[in-house]
Amino acid sequence: MPSYLITGTSRGLGLEMASQLSKNSENLIFATARGAPTPALQKLIDGSSGRVVYVQLDAEKEESIKSAVVQVEKHLNGKGLDILINNAGVMPFALNGVATMDNLSSTFSTNVLSVHLVTSAFIPLLQKGTEKKVFNVSTTLGSIAHAATYRQMPAPAYAVTKAALNMLTVQYSLGYEDQGFTFIALTPGWLKTDLGGDAADLPVEVGAEATLKIVQERGKEDTGKFINIKVAGWEKAPGRMNYYDGEEVAW
């Protein structure tokens, strides 16, 4: 039974990934959230026949992370964790420009430091797993090469921290490639969630399905890469700011 741990499953992409994974009776999903399960997450848990397990995890607090590791380890009963998806994140705005940005520190804590804390804490369980895969949910807004494309987006702290997350992914990749690990940063697309808004490109179901395709199909040969989802009809279509071609994203 492949095991997954996903951070930030209360809503949006994290919840949808957990939901889609739960449809395969062979999967075990540890769905984490900072607080108590939302009604949507609780409904998923209740209908999963024990295959979706709620784990309280505040990714910015080391004691909470340590407690989550103990809970997951106990539930795995001697087995390892196969796949970690670091999905939790925030996108605050600075509507009056980068010089007025007053949220960089808190955004860095959520989008970068928490990913490091969670990943490092779960490394021992991942080392015992059969897949040894870690996926960090990033964004093309974190690409320095594409920065000018998104100059009108009033979210500089989001862009800066996701660029840092990409480098964190590479550093982990270099540090654990000799142990057979896969570390990949991926962009799930601009999705119609509370974070992405109603004007976004894709339904969350489409983004989650394309994201999980990367999770399940990419392996050691792709470690350290920054990968775009693939969605039919969105491969560099003329007139669109965003495209989803399944290829590597320029850093």
From TrEMBL:
What the entry lists under PROSITE patterns is as follows:
ADH_SHORT (PS00061)
- Which family, according to UniProt? Belongs to the short-chain dehydrogenases/reductases (SDR) family.
Q: Which residues form the signal peptide?
A: none
Task: Cite the InterPro entries for this sequence.
Answer: Fungal_SecMetab_SDRs, NAD(P)-bd_dom_sf, Sc_DH/Rdtase_CS, SDR_fam
Keyword Nucleus belongs to the record: no
Tell me what this protein is called: Putative short chain oxidoreductase
- What GO CC annotations are associated with the protein? cytoplasm
Q: What are the GO MF terms of this UniProt record?
A: oxidoreductase activity
Q: Which residues form a coiled coil?
A: none
Which SUPFAM superfamilies is this protein grouped with? NAD(P)-binding Rossmann-fold domains
- Note one Pfam family from the annotation: adh_short
Keyword NADP part of the UniProt annotation = yes
Which UniProt keywords are present, listed alphabetically?
Answer: NADP
Q: Which Gene3D superfamilies match?
A: NAD(P)-binding Rossmann-like Domain
